[in-house]
Amino acid sequence: MHVYQFFALLFGAATLCFGISQSEEISSNALNAPSLSSLLVENKFEPLGIDVNPRFSWVISSPVNGDVQKSYRLRLSTSKPGGADIWDSGTILSKIPYLIEYSGPALKSDTHYFWTVDVVTNAGSTSASSQFSTGLLSASDWGTSAWIGKPSPSNGPPDDLVTAFHNSSWIWTPETNPPNAPPGDRVFRKTFAAPTGKIPVSAVILITADDQFSIYVDGQFIGSSPTTTDIWKKAQFFSASLSSNSTLFAVHAINLADVGTGGDGPAGLLLAIKVSFSDGSSTIIFSDSSWLSNKVIPSDWNLPTGNTSGWLSASAIAVYGQGPWTNQVATPTSISSPTLSFADSSWIWSSEASPPNAPAQPRAFRKTFVAASGKTLKSALILLTVDDGFRLYVDGNILGSSPNETDVWKSAQRFTVDLNGTSTLFAIWANNLADVNSGGPSPAGLLGVIQITYTDGSTEVVLSDTTWKVSTDVSNGFELPSVNDSTWSSASSLGKYGVDPWGTGVTISNSLEEHPAPLLRKEFAISKSISFARLYYAAGGYASITINGSPASDRVLSPGFTKYDTELQYVGLDVASKLISGSNAIGIELGRSHYGVTQGNVWNWDSAPWHGEPRVRVVLSIGYTDGTSYRIVSDDSWKVKEGPTRLDDVFGGENFDASYIQNGFDKAGFDSSAWSQAAIMTAPAGALVNQRQPPTRLVQSLTPISITQPVSGIFVAKFERVVAGWVKLTASGPAKTLITIHFGEKLNTDGTVMYQDIGHYYANNFQTDRFWLAGTGKLEVFEPKFSYKGYQYVQIEGWPGSTPPTNADIVGRVVHDDLATRGGFESSSDLLNKMHNAVVFTLLNNVHSIPTDCPTFEKNGWSGDAMLGTEMFLLNLDAQELLAKYVRDLDESRPNGSGPPAVIAPDSGWGANNHAPTWHSAFIFIPWWIYQYRGDRRILEDHYDSMKNYVEFELGRSPNNIADTSLGDWVTPETSPLGGNPPEDTRVSATAYLYRMLIVMQEIATVLNKTSDATTFTGQANSVNTAFNNVFFNHTTGYYTGTGDQGYRQTHNLLALSFGLVPSASIQNVADSIAQDVSSRGTHLNTGALGTKYILPTLSEHGHVDSAFALSQQTTFPSWGFWIENGATTMWEHWALEARSHDHLFLGTFEDWIYKHVVGIQSTAVAFENVTISPLFTSHLTFARTWTLTPFGNLTIDWENNAGNLTVNLGIPVGVNVNVDVPGMGNATAFGSGKHTFTTMINL
Q: Ranges for the Alpha-L-rhamnosidase concanavalin-like domain (predicted)?
């Protein structure tokens, strides 16, 4: 059962339990007996793969009010439920029913256990049994299994060339401040003379440059780098034939302006060349100071006969591994293709009065290409960009379009299309937008290059030039071959690529680059009756496993993402039902996840320390009923072949070519004679641990609520809400038909999907899947396996045939970690209900083995986002194991095991060494909240030393006990919708968080009986408190201010109050100042991520309940209601309509207030053992009800105010004590477990 059904059923069940008064009694002893449910091991139901000391939990239900557990007894057996052949705890006097540690003999690896709990309560006794299986408890338990994957391409760089590359030096022209150099072009050359008697025959070259390069051998172009951002992080590999004893190697390198300053930036060229001779010997050429360099580019610079007078020796800046580049350069696995270039193309447009400026109007371009005599067209590769956007058609069919974004011309788009016959028509709708300042004419141009491939393998290039036809009349159907364009004008040339105003700033993505996912298979026979079959697998990346043609489980995107150089997760599955007598087969397809990212990106996932090709390790453990056992393991007896997933990227999407499908590869009897032997791969460095967090699953399918065609040939499907996942697409058409699928949360003004990478985080692909049909004549289905997207809208381009897609063709899939629902809320306020539902959807959309910031743009485990969301995760969802896994991710992100955690975790190294105590506080607060909400003491014990080390580090870098942060109260209303700190003193929030961390560490030390540490933390906290008030408390105004604040800052004062920093005499004045500022802004908040969590609780707790409720009901900017009024179904990243992300959780933290104040559940002891219920009654609400599953069971409250007549219904689990504090009742009233109803009069 998934969250969407579970919420309705459980909430309904919780509601039904109300109405039984405290005075009712059950007379039958049998009816009075307690019962047990929710028997869990490590918070999981019947888990397989337990590799830690197990802890046992259960929930008691009793029809007798006030019942409580008196004792328990645990038994463990390998033979039967109720047995105790392994362990018997004896009777333990305790009322605690959760996370009880096993304390018997050491458990065995890969073993099935039964466990039984006997419970005695005041009402009687009861017993229940469950089961679990251990995982592989040590590295040796993996036995002879090996890491396997696909073999390295035979055309990859040889080992000695890679070694030489790593021993080469970064070189550049002599500069005044190396490694920095002015932006500009440089040329380098080196003449190689073969030793006497040696005849050079070939050369292989491994090369990169910061920022771009082209390389020539004896004047012949060999290849160049792509022009994507930070392409220097990926070396290129080329080969060249040699025919002379003297060879010239020449490189044209470009340094671009620093992206931050526009000025000088790091510049360098790094290469190694292996020259092979006819006798089989070889020699290596390194980049070093023996190369010549020039800051000007002579016409003969790359020719062997070139004049080298005036050239200078290159400067060797740093050896590989040093300088700003460190060891971030990844080596390729195959020969790089010569890059199609704009070098000979011209910018073209219609004839205008003041070129390159043109009116803000579209233009139509056409070019009919006729094949050379005797040749037949096969395909075309197209690079295209237009200032300011385009749609591309081939033979009347739309092939693709540009993203709808500012300065889209800076990123050229790449397309491929199959052709036939002897002619083809390229047609382009090209748009020019008005100048952003004047609203008048602006630069307009089209730049393209097309490589035509014939059936005989030869090629021909088509350039954008004056042979293209152009029309200012862009009529419907202009793209059709039947249109007569003989009267159209010839395009006007604005100059070759590089001309102003565009310069050489066009980057070319490589969205179609192939990195095919390997398919692996293994056949085996079973001849005896099976007792059990357990499959264990770990992967560098993702592993999609099938057995005998059906999925091994319903898990997807598995195993989970970790910092692979410190930890890898493995999964255990019960697969006995999948096996049959006789021949069986296992099939595996491997995806890249964060392990083998191929496209460049801001966070350096493509050059992470663990980076490599996907790999898998497998143990299938089979036990037979005769007591014998057998193992099938991953080794080089497995077969491998590249499959239909030609590219997968967790951020970019997937390219899937159905013609590569291997039907039946995962069934016995499949002919794999043409497959290769699996390669034994190097083991990743991380330790293998069982996956702790719940699995990621496909949890719901959605039907589009509409399908529109805003532009001819482009279809847009809209779904009911923003989700994370993908779509299942069904289509039929000719072979090699390309269907492009774009995903986005928002629409452009023309009704197309806003799917672009507006932050330019990724080099090639973003939120896009591509599906090439096999042309079977039947319906073909594509569903991704290795990437997920954030979306409410899906754009389909290239749909085959004349009939638009239907709802059955585009099925939305909702994919996230399968977190069970643990709470719910409903009230008389429709707005509060919608806000609550939107928060829960946002939380779920952001769990994919880590808590993420958003499922669309970054998918990163930002620590601040996770910290701010932890309490609402724990109130609503079964999230403790996910969060506990994330705490380990944070711990492992600390550089060299010391200092602060990274601001994203897991991390590639990008998020390390940041100065952001506000975000780093996640490492302190999340474990503490897990302990408070779930009673998990182990998480405190596991990480205490690291937490202590970090807090001491933070205190040590806080001069005079005043901290600072690079991440303050992020995205307050006045900041940019793309994000930013507010105009306020960031030291205030940083120091408040430092103080609160010290207080929490004191509490943790006390729990763990570390008395001396607790005393130290108390003293340190007191010192920070004193410094905070000395520096930031304004005695004149009576509230907190910082240096450089722009007016009153709500978050300064909210944090001071919420964290306990305000002197008691000033508390009410500070609270009143917040309420006054809210009022002065027209009942609006002015908080960002840090302050929003605390504004409603703080107002409510200090006499401003009406102000808090009014804020919660606000529907104008900035407010949550403003989002809802504008169609929000999830929380946004910013208060503004222009918010980048529409699926961000950190501004949705009003949810804490709903549970703790609106309904009034305030836990006053660990795991809700003691609770105070004190709802905030107000004229805004006539009823509210909620439930939340505590470690003791389901706690429910339902109150209704009927004209001052208040009725309260309580459902209290066994073991929980509740004090109810309601106006009109006098002193707080105590209740034990059971169902209770009371009424009273209130005056609002």
A: 714-816
- C-alpha dihedral (465, 466, 468, 470), degrees to nearest 10: 120
Would you say 177 and 247 are in contact if contact means Cβ atoms under 8 Å apart? Answer: no
Condensed to tens digits (0 to 9), the pLDDT of residues 1058-1093 reads: 999 999 999 999 999 999 999 999 999 999 999 999
CATH of domain 518-691: 2.60.120.260
Task: Name residue, tokens 């999981």.
Answer: 44
Interatomic CA distance for residues 867 and 889, integer angstroms: 13
Over residues 932-960, the pLDDT tens digits come to: 999 999 999 999 999 999 999 999 999 99
Q: Which CATH number is 823-1158 given?
A: 1.50.10.10
Q: Report yes or no: 1137 and 1119 within 8 Å, Cβ to Cβ.
A: no
Q: Distance between terminal CA atoms of the chain?
A: 41
Determine the topology of domain 346-496 in CATH.
Answer: Jelly Rolls (2.60.120)
Confidence at 339, pLDDT banded by 50, 70, 90: low
As given in the structure block, the two tokens for residue 1095 are: 């504004």
Q: Where in the chain is the domain with CATH 2.60.120.260?
A: 159-319, 346-496, 518-691, 697-817
Band (pLDDT 50/70/90 cuts) for residue 30 is low
Q: Determine the residue type at 209.
A: A
Report whether 73 contacts 103 (CB < 8 A): no
| Local confidence band at 155 (pLDDT 50, 70, 90 cut-offs) | confident
Residues in the chain: 1244
d(CA 1197, CA 1208): 7
CA distance linking residue 787 with residue 785, whole number of Å:
6
Nearest alpha carbon to residue 58 among 132, 117, 134, 121 = 117
Residue 22: the pLDDT is 31
User: What's the Cα-to-Cα distance from 1243 to each of 568, 1103, 1113, 1201, 1224, rounded to whole Å?
Assistant: 59, 16, 22, 10, 8
Q: Which amino acid, residue 561?
A: F
Tokens 């890969």 belong to which residue? 110
* Peptide bond preceding 906 in cis form (omega within 30 of 0): yes
Residue 1069 backbone phi and psi in degrees, to 5: -65, -40
In the chain, which segments carry CATH 1.50.10.10? 823-1158
| CATH fold of 159-319 | Jelly Rolls (2.60.120)
Q: Which of 18, 171, 195, 135 minimizes the C-alpha distance to 537?
A: 135
CA distance 544 to 542: 7
The answer to whether the CB of 31 falls within 8 A of the CB of 1196 is no
- pLDDT in the model for residue 14: 34
Which is it for strands 69-77 and 87-88: parallel, antiparallel or unpaired? antiparallel
Chain segment 782-804, per-residue pLDDT in tens: 999 999 999 999 999 999 988 99
Its pTM stands at 0.87
Helix (H, G, I), strand (E, B) or coil at 542: strand
CA distance linking residue 224 with residue 425, whole number of Å: 29
- Torsion sign (Cα): 1079, 1081, 1082, 1086: negative
1054: pLDDT strictly greater than 80? yes
Would you say 654 and 648 are in contact if contact means Cβ atoms under 8 Å apart? yes
Q: How far apart are CA 681 and CA 564, in angstroms?
A: 15
Helix 938-956 and helix 922-934: axis angle, to 10°? 150
Question: Domain 697-817: which topology?
Answer: Jelly Rolls (2.60.120)
List every span in the chain annotated with CATH 2.60.40.10.
35-135
Reference 357, options 500, 567, 147, 176; nearest CA is 500
Reduce the DSSP state of residue 274 to 3 states and report it. Answer: strand
- Sheet (strand 35-41) strand order: 35-41, 55-61, 100-101
The angle formed by the CA atoms of residues 583, 580 and 79, to the nearest 5 degrees, is 130
What kind of architecture, by CATH, is found in domain 35-135? Sandwich (2.60)
Select the more confidently predicted residue: 1224 or 1218.
1218
